[in-house]
Specification:
258 residues, alpha/beta, Rossmann fold, 7 helices, 42% helix, 15% strand, binds NADP nicotinamide-adenine-dinucleotide phosphate
């Protein structure tokens, strides 16, 4: 077997949360291109439907499952729909996320709960559901949580987001410890700044200045995460558990003024 064959996902069933835009939509297409049948989850059903058609017209297989990641009944319906269409989900990409721009002292409880709920609590709920179903079906699989470099460092105005992403990194380790010996590997990716809808306004203003602090000399593009995503979703990472791979162009290396 060639090493490249380890990345092949033919026959696998992958569920991607936050598949209606940005990284999640890109991950869904990438997984389908590499052989997986894909379940697209988010709230904006029209976007999921457009992506489903795009994946199918490229020769892949996908279904759309509208769900708010904090709605556990909708979550169960999404996994049920996946099983009816394709079989047990053995790859979960926990990608849905929201950001905010509130200083910690003024932040409302509503913002704190929404941001930590979507970025951290939902990661636990979807991982629990995916793992329970894999164990019940006696299948091995992979869970990939999307964290952030803001899980390691912090900026002004992102306290809830940064706390949630730090939680995702530690949750990844805790889940991996309990699930690895049962055949469910849990790992994470911590991207640096990748231009998508979540940050397009912010980067339009600050992008040039931020690029100065990224050693590879540019902001990230969605395809820069392809290698890490395929590695962690596939058998190529069969001896990895609880790891968070930082993909940030070296952004975290530089001290201020460096
Ligand atoms: N872009 C970056 O620079 C960067 C860096 C580090 C980490 N990340 C992380 O990467 C992930 C994807 O971000 P992105 O940049 O692709 O942002 P994006 O384009 O804004 O996408 C966010 C996705 O999350 C979904 N979502 C948000 N709240 C949801 C909810 N309650 N229920 C279901 N889906 C929900 C959105 O879909 P609906 O609105 O249709 O529900 C959308 O598909 C996030 O976890 C983000 O924190 C991004």
């Amino acid at each position: 077997m060639k090493a490249g064959d380890l990345f092949d996902l033919t026959g696998r069933v992958a569920l991607v949360t936050g598949a209606s835009s940005g990284l999640g939509a890109h991950f869904a297409e990438l997984l389908a291109e590499n052989g997986a049948k894909v379940v697209l989850v988010a709230r904006r059903a029209d976007r999921l439907e457009a992506l489903r058609r795009k994946i199918e017209s490229a020769g892949g297989q996908a279904i759309a499952a509208e769900a708010d990641v904090l709605d556990r009944e909708a979550m169960k319906r999404a996994f049920d729909a996946a099983e009816t269409a394709f079989g047990t989900v053995t790859i979960l990409i926990n990608n849905a996320g929201v950001t905010h721009a509130d200083r910690a002292v003024e932040m409302s409880e509503e913002v704190w709960r929404r941001v930590t709920g979507t970025n951290l609590d939902a990661v636990l709920y979807w991982a629990q559901e995916a793992a329970r179903r894999m164990l019940l079906a006696k299948k091995q699989g992979a869970i990939v949580n999307i964290a952030s470099v803001l899980g390691y460092g912090v900026s002004k105005g992102v306290a809830a987001y940064a706390v949630a992403k730090a939680g995702v990194i530690q949750l990844t380790r805790a889940l991996a410890l309990e699930l690895a010996f049962k055949g469910v590997r849990v790992n994470a990716i911590a991207p640096g700044f990748i231009t998508t809808e979540i940050n397009s306004e912010y980067l339009a203003g600050k992008g040039a200045e931020m690029t100065r602090h990224i050693p590879v000399g540019r902001l990230g593009e969605t395809r820069d995460l392809d290698g890490a995503l395929l590695l962690l979703a596939s058998d190529a990472s069969r001896f990895m558990a609880g790891t968070t791979i930082v993909v940030d162009g070296g952004q975290m290396l530089a001290l201020p003024g460096a």
